[in-house]
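Hi C.,

You asked whether I'd gotten around to modeling the 174-residue construct. I have! Everything is below, sequence then structure, no commentary in between.
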Amino acid sequence: MPKENDGTGNERELGRIIREHFPSLCAIACKLVGDPDTAQDIAQETLIKFWENQQAGGEQPASVKDYLFIMVRNESLNYLRSLSRQRKRHEEAARESEWAEDTWNNIIEQETNQMLQDAIDTLPPQSKRVIELACSGNSNPEIADILGIAINTVKVLKNRAVQKLKDYFAQDNL
């Protein structure tokens, strides 16, 4: 391969190498990476690296064809490794983002519960107890039974408590 920079001879030699090897390099890269466009990019990069190495006075391989095939294989494997690392980084970032979102939602939930508890603490004792039992999932008849009062009394206490809670939050006690 010519090493001098006469222009024409170098261009002809590069053109010959591209015509002779580019299609097979693309086929090898495509088989490894599974994407024709990426395979063409890898084949082009391989030829460029090879040519630059030759122009810089690099060692002349015994078989250009074998040397290029090894180069394109290595470039394809490097691409796949890079792709794998990139996927892992994206997955890790997604997990961290999910964790941050879950943490943020947990903080908001805790703050909201604390604000609600602060508001419930302002209620009269019996209304407070009715609301706490209702928040625990008890029905009106169950609350009446637990407190030993009439169901209608539970309904009245609950309605008054809910109205006082609405007023509490409307006053911007946050």
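If it helps when you're writing up: The chain has six helices and no strands.

Thanks,
B.
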